[in-house]
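Q: My labmate handed me this sequence with no annotations at all. I'd like to see what the chain might look like in three dimensions before we decide whether it's worth expressing. Could you predict it?
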Amino acid sequence: MKKIDLQKIGLTDRVRDEAKAYAGLYLGRVSAQSKGLYRVLTETGELTAEVSGKFRYQASNPADFPAVGDFVLVDRTTDRNGHGVIHHVLTRKSVFARKAAGETDALQIVATNIDTVFLCMALNQDFNLRRLERYLAIAWDSGATPVVVLTKADLCGDLEDKLRQVSTVAVGVEILTTSSVSADGYLLVKKYLQEGQTVAFLGSSGVGKSTLINRLLGGEVIATNETRKDGKGRHTTTRRQMIILPEGGIVIDTPGMRELGIVGADLGKSFADIDELATQCKFRDCTHGAEPGCAVQQAIKEGSLGADRVESYKKLQKEAKYEGLNAKQIEKEKLNRMFKDFGGMKNARKYIKEKTRHR
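A: Here is what I predict for the chain of 359 residues:
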């Protein structure tokens, strides 16, 4: 069985120190998941594992369960004598999540412990600025650094105009352009793939995620399908999986997602231009509608800001339950959501203070 250097696949001193609190268990990282079973990479190889009964009983929602990218503690390092058992999921440094289909508040974890998330969008019929805004808001909220990857540049007849449009919504984000017909189209992406770094590819089906990953792997490792005549993709990746690249770096491939239900969004970063304008509004609680002295509406009239971008901003505010809040209030709301098990941020501070006093 091939040994694995966990440090090369993202293990940090923080994770190692946290694991020391659990004696008799072994560190591993989840590389794939399917129907309650997980593939876990350990220092002595790979094994299949499932969560313990106690873990299942104590889990309050699906987001508590292991996800691809998680560092976990298992009871063994091989599955020669049966499946391993996962007892703990260690603290995640970043979480890319979406609203689970058909459920009100349930989270679906897409991937965790990501350093960079590549938001892939094709420059053909898949091109959709409003969807990209949604992806960016969720990506910034995840804790990972987003990078926009525009694929299929060879199919785009107005590349300069498309790049201009993307630059108006991808504020402060690097934008890469690749082509499936160019052999070196993946080199721009490759610079992010260093040893110990984890990247995830997200985007609709058919935008070329699997093609890019195959280029990075140096062969047809992941199956690819032709795009349909209407420009929409066919699902190629059917499950989340973590892939170790031969030259270093870890890639997480995910099934195509045309829509992402929002559970949290960093609108301050993804709509930094609107937030900056909002500081110039006459009223602090300006809704950027019909109020007098609204700097946002003035920017729309002057043509420096698109009305559709403002509508998208308001829509995402409402969906993320931040409607009517300014940047400082949104940050407070996010902290309260993070510490809701303690009854809000105020009680969380009290709990931490009491815990510190009794050490």
